[in-house]
Amino acid sequence: MKTCLVLSYTIQFAHTHATAIALLLAFVAASAAAAVPRRRTYPPGPRGLPLLGNTFQLPSSKHWLTYQKWAMSHGGVISFTSMGERLVVLNTARAVCDLFESRGAIYADRPVATMVGELVGWNKGLGYARLTPETSNISSVNELYPVHSHARFRVLRRLFQDVIGPSACQLSDHIERLERARDDLLGRITEKSHREPNGCNFSESVRQSTSAFILLLTYGYKVPQDSEDDELVRIVEDAMDGFSRASEPDAFLVDRWPILRYAPPWLPGTGFLREASRMHSDREKLYNVPIELAVGKAIPSMVSSLLAAASAQTIEQEEELIKAVGASLYSGSGFRYFECTHRALQTHSALMSFLLAMLLYPEVQTRAQVQLDSVLGSLEIARPLSLQDREHLPYVEALVKEVWRWNPSVPLGMAHRVTQDDIYDGMLLEKGTTVYANLWAILHDENIFPDPFSFSPERYISADGKLKQIDRMEDPSLIAFGFGRRICPGLHLADGSLFLYIASLLQFFVVKKALDEAGNELEPDVDYEGFISQPKPFKCRLVPRLRGVFAI
Ligand code: HEM
């Protein structure tokens, strides 16, 4: 309408007939162009098959390597289709910052996860929390927090911030718990080394220790020696088993065709409904039972401090949220006390990568130990390390950054969902599209990290031995935890604990290759597996640097 008015106005005032005709033709051409639906310019990607798209070009594991290869031919932002669904992968720090950080609101949602989120009920917690538009003005804790609401998401993030945000991680209670967890790890490792002096796989000791720490942190609960029969460990294990199994990509058809959730249970092929109901009740148990254990406990915990801060009028609503935060701490950190085939743990994976790196780069280990001894004293008179020493140990700090970079535990982050059509560099990211940040590709970008496959803490150290000033897009101890509004809320906890574990292990042990029966050193297998990427099982020795001293 507006265009027509402008046109008639222009014709009236055109000086010549010819000009009017030219303008008319231009208008007709422009209208015709507008009438033809414009081709949508999705981000580029590999050419797929008609109807099937790229489904059969996708690898069965280590997807991040394939995405990085495609990005080399098509550019940093790529798209492709899998089983009819369009996916977008961001392979550069610039693109992830531009979208997840600068346009955060559009990228803060998670895709629907029918099995794990809707049926098993993990969407009550943080990781799978959806963000549909707010329907009511929920602004105070006097209101209920429906599962699908911005308000619930915001409150959960705030509670996480209260218990494991940067300030909470500086508190003496928190540091004490971390140091206790460190001592527990060193104790388990010492014991295992005594039993198998020629070398062993330390994965179990690391897994149990890091998981026991999460129980201590959340409920103030100390795992007893005989953990096999422990009721709480069992409850958490069962719930986490369901969580891991239900979140496996493509394990359940209902994730592909959500309509199946309404199928009658007698229909063949609907066994997943029974599975979902069992997992649901395991999750409910995890929500309800441990909170009762934490109440009135002498050891302060995350749950007890949140309960103490809740006001009497709102305790019912807040208790529900506190249960969700407790359970999300497990799912987020990946609690697994017993052997698990479904899923690895992030901190566990980072520690195993560290041990592997020390086997392959002994000179890095020696340099870190020289710095530790110079700050803490030589071993005969050394004191145990504390987190306050961190700022005096730039090389160890750089080593931790390199562990985050070399084998990031969550190489593709978690899926984000676009909440409205968005144009980026002329490319359309359509509402509803699932977007991943390829953190692995960013951390192996040779323009930022030259020679990216070498393990080299030196890349963060300046000529005077201090840490270089680096910005957010070059800092693996930030990049490895994702970007934007869904950035990992466990970042400060994970980074602090990894520092303490690594520095303390180096203070008291030398990591050496395992020996065969003839006393020859065995080369470790250097490979990774899993969506939470961890090194394939390998053996090593942790040899005390001075007899007796490591028993702190
Ligand atoms: C090695 C350690 C860890 C790494 C590398 C890691 C990494 C990540 C990444 C990449 C994400 C996805 C961010 C995104 O969507 O863009 C994430 C989410 C999350 N992480 Fe971690 N994480 C670690 C440890 C932890 C710990 C110790 C906790 C809790 C105690 C935790 C709790 C969570 C939660 C709750 C989310 C979901 C946040 C949300 O959806 O808003 N993580 N983490």
Question: Could you characterize the architecture of this molecule?
Answer:
The chain has 552 residues and is an alpha+beta fold. Helices cover 46% and strands 7% of the residues. The chain is built from 19 helices and ten strands. The strands form four sheets. A four-stranded mixed sheet has the order 1-2-6-3. The protein has a two-stranded antiparallel sheet with strand order 4-5. Strand 8 and strand 9 form a beta hairpin. It is globular. The termini are far apart. The model is unreliable at 1-16, 30-37, 134-142, 340-344 and 548-552 (pLDDT under 50). The site of protoporphyrin IX containing FE has 25 residues, from helix 13, helix 14 and helix 19. This is Cytochrome P450.
Explain briefly what this protein structure is.
The chain is of the alpha+beta class. It is 46% helix and 7% strand. The chain has 19 helices and ten strands.
